[in-house]
Design a protein that fits this description.
- This protein is α/β, with parallel strands linked by helices.
- The protein folds into two domains: 198 residues, Quinone Oxidoreductase, Chain A, domain 1 (Alpha-Beta Complex), CATH 3.90.180.10; 133 residues, Rossmann fold (3-Layer(aba) Sandwich).
- It is 23% helix and 24% strand.
- The chain has ten helices and 17 strands.
- Strands 3, 4, 5, 8, 9, 16 and 17 form a seven-stranded mixed beta sheet that branches. Strands 12-11-10-13-14-15 form a six-stranded parallel beta sheet.
- Strand 10, helix 5 and strand 11 form a beta-alpha-beta unit.
- Helix 4 packs across helix 5 and helix 4 crosses helix 9.
- The longest helix is centred in the last third of the chain and has 14 residues.
- The radius of gyration is 20 Å and the shape is globular.
- The protein binds zinc ion (2 copies).
- The site of one zinc ion has 5 residues, from loops.
């Protein structure tokens, strides 16, 4: 099969082709597993973290990609409930042990044995992948492949982040950064908390304009002062500066939720600016979001069917994965999510060019 493989992590600033197009042996479904023929795979910032080495894979080469939509092409022993040709999604959660105290408490995202798609095991930047059947998601008919893919991580972890803010309808929500996850969170928040105004912080003018198109009350740069203090902020940026800039803009009791698997080490000195009185006093909270549960994914897919929530996508062929990731790496303007088209027959090929 054709795959984009990562032999060794590196930096896009010094190597534009970290992922290599290669023909490798296709996997086969083991006991309890499904073999999936990949139609599309959406691009996540975490893929960039894997490729640039901020998130370390247990072995290389590895195939990244964890927002996969495809069709069942093989069924391992002991699997029930799936037939060949069924459309399934594969998300970041590839497996968890199901027995530890976090799994039993419904927080399998925190399982010490958590295994991730596209890092711990090979992911969807390839024509085929395998997944434990218990961790494959049925994709509702209402969603096309390209619409469903970004919902599997950008959407699902955005949904988890939104719930972790403990927002009440009418409370003021801030979004720090406006990429593929935030553009979905904005729409979810408008649907679930219609009385809550949304304030978006983004460096890029085009991203701020996109946020206003989607219904933000206000959009500004990180140093701009919103008209009101915020009750919660979801931060999707890979750096610390926005957190330091935005904590003073939280109201008493405000919650700051970080939806990012890694923060850059290069601006870590920003943290020295944290001052207890300015940034934390008055019961302001900081919390990270780790991984997703299967339930997060199910809820978000159901919400999309119920409400019409859809991502804005740009489709590129699999072979241009490096270009897509390099663009994320350079902080180039985003308008929603990028989706890689893997098997031409199955995916819509409304490929648009990168700017
Ligand atoms: Zn567990
Ligand atoms: Zn992701």
């Amino acid at each position: 099969m054709r795959a984009m493989i990562l032999r060794q992590p590196g930096k896009y600033s010094s190597n534009a082709s970290l992922l290599e197009v290669t023909d490798v042996a296709a996997p086969s479904a083991g006991d309890g597993e499904l073999l999936v023929r990949v139609s599309v795979c959406a691009v996540c910032r975490t893929d960039l973290d894997v490729v640039e080495g901020r998130v370390v894979a247990p072995r290389y080469p590895v195939v990244p990609g964890h927002q996969v939509v495809g069709r069942v092409a093989g069924i391992g022993r002991g699997v029930t409930g799936f037939r060949e040709g069924d459309r399934v999604g594969v998300a970041w959660i590839n497996s968890a042990d199901g027995t530890c105290r976090w799994c039993r408490a419904g927080t399998e995202n925190l399982c010490p044995q958590f295994r991730s798609t596209g890092c711990d095991v090979d992911g969807g930047y390839a024509e085929y992948l395998v997944v434990p059947a218990a961790f494959a998601h049925a994709i509702p008919n209402e969603l096309t492949d390209t619409e469903a893919a970004p919902l599997l991580c950008a959407g699902a972890i955005g949904w988890r982040s939104l719930r972790l803010t403990r927002l009440s309808d009418g409370e003021r929500l801030g979004l720090s950064g406006f990429g593929s996850s935030a553009h979905l969170v904005l729409q979810m928040a408008r649907l679930r908390y219609p009385a809550s105004p949304i304030y978006v912080f983004a460096r890029d003018e085009g991203e701020r304009a996109f946020a206003m198109e989607l219904g933000a009350m206000w959009a500004g740069n990180f140093t701009d002062v919103p008209p009101e203090l915020l009750d919660a902020v979801i931060d999707t940026t890979p750096v610390w500066k926005p957190m330091v800039e935005l904590l003073p803009k939280l109201a008493p009791g405000g919650r700051f939720v970080i939806n990012a698997i890694r923060k850059s080490s290069t601006d870590q000195s920003e943290l020295l600016r944290l001052d207890y009185a300015t940034h934390l006093w008055m019961e302001r909270e900081i919390k990270s979001v780790a991984n997703v549960t299967r339930e997060d994914v199910r809820q978000l897919l159901a919400l999309a069917v119920e409400t019409g929530l859809r991502p804005t996508v740009e489709v590129l062929p699999l072979e241009r994965a490096n270009e897509a990731l390099a663009r994320l790496s350079s902080g180039a303007r985003m308008r929603g999510a990028m989706v890689l088209s893997v098997s031409q027959s199955a995916a819509q090929t409304t490929t648009s060019s990168l700017q």
